[in-house]
């Protein structure tokens, strides 16, 4: 069988699932909507005079869609592969796979390519849409091919990274957080080096060549750069980066194949004997004596029983810890509920914080004050925006896994039959997530305060940024808890929760790029973006409120994309107070719409009333 029975099973069952065809259809429709939206923006705000205008439109459109597809492929492949393996660990089914006759290679590669099957199916479905872009001009078919080559290789490397980390780490949050941090560091390190020393060289190569070879973002931007005749750098970006990504994927998978049965199971119980002594059997004293040939005397049996594991006297410590009135919050705050390896995640996050702070310091020190603020997107947003995104993703990942881990470990049912109230459970989880991720919450606000101290941010705008970030943190925290409670399948819950956060960010960035690159009057762009807004509203309602519908979630799903579009246009027009008020009100209302059913309709949110009705 190709790549083992795990991949063979997914290859046979995937075409029978409607969600595979639905995902491909939705993705192609979204790409077509973006193309039509961009064309309507250009046609409604500018005059198309000649073929050169059409060629410029095709080139700019390709520069928007290709990085967007790369981001979706990298994020989707990494999180799908990581959550697929993490779910096997949480449900204790990975041990069953290890007990079969499958080889290490069949297990590792089967799980990897089974998870990547949907990603590569979406890329194949999107290829005809991208082949339409060269018809506008300004883009060649070879550039499209190289862009897909970079995207496919990057997706394979990202999926291999997520799968390897999931096989290595035990906790789901550790896997997701380390995967997200590694992906951001992958891009940030080379972009930072290219920013700090754009004209420098490293080992006989300029840093730009190293960046296009080792960074997926630099490689995709090099392949989308308009050039006539074709530059040698474009070919090197497509072929050089693909070679590096495939080599990295092979190395990661080889490491996972060699170590998978060493890493797993991570907590296997073994009977350990002191040095120089033989381990006692678990079959009983009489059988041990019979097998050893010793006489079954009463004294010998009693001596053997005194050394048996069941005869050991265990004394408990006199120190006890006082549990708070909310035991859920006490467990999250006072114990290592998510493993001690959370410290590694904090160290990695502090490393990214140091990089973001260094990049911010370099930009503020080398760019004139007027140049930093004269553009629509300030220079400080280059290091600050990805750092804030990874902070929101980590908070959301911990929130959703705090529920899914309880469910997969079969501890959630025990909690539901205790005298814990819904408020204690929900607020305990929310408070525990904020306690564990306190660095992720405070450090982006610290960078914003540094901008205010340096004079690049007014005191009023600093208040706007800090309060808006606080509201967004509460939103992503509650979103994770909401998805974890409403989706019984952990992989689905994690994918929906992280997908909503990531797609909201990509939607904002894509809309801003279309508005800035194609220009025009911002007030007249509502009609071209209407289909994009309605599609976002439908997607939010399906993910947030379809399983347990409520009027509040319906209103929030309708208002959130429209309010986000209004915030984008208001920000580009520098109406910062309107951006702040609309952001706080809409995302605060959406948070309350998810919080109220969790508190007052706890049985419905957890699905217990449905199960009782079926019984």
Rg, Å, rounded: 27 Å
Roughly how much helix do the residues carry, as a percent range?
over 70%
> In one word, what is the shape?
globular
Structural class by helix and strand composition:
mainly alpha
SSE order in H/E notation? HHHHHHHEEHHHHHHHHHHHHHHHHHHH
Portion of residues in beta strands equals: under 5%
User: Overall mean pLDDT score?
Assistant: 82
Low-confidence stretches: 228-233, 268-285, 608-615
Strand order of the largest sheet: 1-2
Number of helices: 26
End-to-end C-alpha gap: 41 Å
Number of strands: 2
Largest sheet: 2 strands, antiparallel
Q: Could you explain the architecture of this structure?
A:
By secondary structure, the protein is an all-alpha fold. Helices cover 75% and strands 1% of the residues. A hairpin with a 2-residue loop joins strand 1 and strand 2 (205-206). Helix 1 (5-13) packs parallel to helix 5 and helix 16 runs antiparallel to helix 19. The longest helix has 40 residues, at 51-90. The radius of gyration is 27 Å and the shape is globular. The two termini are 41 Å apart. The model is unreliable at 228-233, 268-285 and 608-615 (pLDDT under 50).
Q: Any descriptors?
A:
615 residues; mainly alpha; two-stranded antiparallel sheet; 26 helices
Quick structural summary:
The protein is an all-alpha fold and 615 residues long.
